[in-house]
Request: fold
Amino acid sequence: MIARHPLCDPMPLLSSAFEPGRCRELVESMPEGPARDVARAELLYFTGQAEAAAAAARPLLASDDLSVLLSASLVLGYASLSLGQADDARAALGTARAAVGEGLDDADPLASAVASFFVTTARTLLHLPLPERVPPLEDCVGLLPEGLRPFALYVLAHQAYLVGEHGRCVGVAEAALAVQGEARPITNTYLHLACVMGYVGMRDVGAARANLLAAWDLARPDAHCAQLDQPGDCRPPWGLRQHRQAVSLTRHGEAWGGKSQGARALHAALAAHRLLLPSVA
Reply:
């Protein structure tokens, strides 16, 4: 019997292909254990429940399973940033960086690739330095588990945007969307939003609009977006509300005819993206 690699399934929900609208069903169908616990924490984060996601991820930092520990660190880092807790985010992602530095096996290509993915994502979020032994992510994408590769390309697209390479940002994101064998709605939402950012940088309003709407249509079935139109206890996370504002503007063609309305729509699109992957300088 072939032994299971300890880093074969990080970020199990992010890595999964599923039909939009069936995300929760997918998570609950996973076998009971740490991987499902990680997936539940991911689901909480992606549905705008950052506080609950942080609470679910924090105990998993004590796991002896490196895949679980790294995944929990990333979820906790994302959730902490969404809650405005930058120090907690740095601590969580620092845990991942330390675990990589201590446990990296230079002779194991998969371990090196996964390590590069997590620490590069942490660096993109919080500008943490890379451990010396970690190879560049662009050299490792093909070695990652298949489900993680598209999000790795998203991280590279996001990095390109941060240094002002808007065309490269769009190119990487669109290539990732084009070559996938199976649709991964969560990752594809991020990829479309990377395209929004890149096209905004290039002042291509039409392409930015198309990608914003594509992102919304992917996110809506599983992100509790129906709560946006409901009163009372169904209060949405304000990040999704901002996203809805952008979509509301872009749904009306006339909003893109005037400079003022177009600028508002693009600003809202960027705000929505920053909330999905917040960054702290």
